[in-house]
């Protein structure tokens, strides 16, 4: 798996390529869109957070635990997201790419005061 270095986090000493995590999460039938970002974690250094747009058939019925459990079936435990946030939509560029950096910066700004 190759990706930009900025899209790699270090979780408890393990290198996690966020694009790989996203690709594996798309296998879950309840996920319409997903963006994975790295967030600060006091114990692990960084951890994996998934922002999920649920598929229309699963909206309101899928839980974060089900998403995490499904991820654990597809990937190593250190790669699986520990935090899942459901959103209505993900920000996109004019060409339709998900703006992961914007999501990362928004999360950092929200937690900076904490």
Automatic annotation (TrEMBL):
<feature type="domain" description="AMP-binding enzyme C-terminal">
    <location>
        <begin position="20"/>
        <end position="97"/>
    </location>
</feature>
<dbReference type="GO" id="GO:0016878">
    <property type="term" value="F:acid-thiol ligase activity"/>
</dbReference>
<dbReference type="InterPro" id="IPR050237">
    <property type="entry name" value="ATP-dep_AMP-bd_enzyme"/>
</dbReference>
<dbReference type="InterPro" id="IPR025110">
    <property type="entry name" value="AMP-bd_C"/>
</dbReference>
<dbReference type="InterPro" id="IPR045851">
    <property type="entry name" value="AMP-bd_C_sf"/>
</dbReference>
<dbReference type="Pfam" id="PF13193">
    <property type="entry name" value="AMP-binding_C"/>
</dbReference>
<protein>
    <recommendedName>
        <fullName>AMP-binding enzyme C-terminal domain-containing protein</fullName>
    </recommendedName>
</protein>
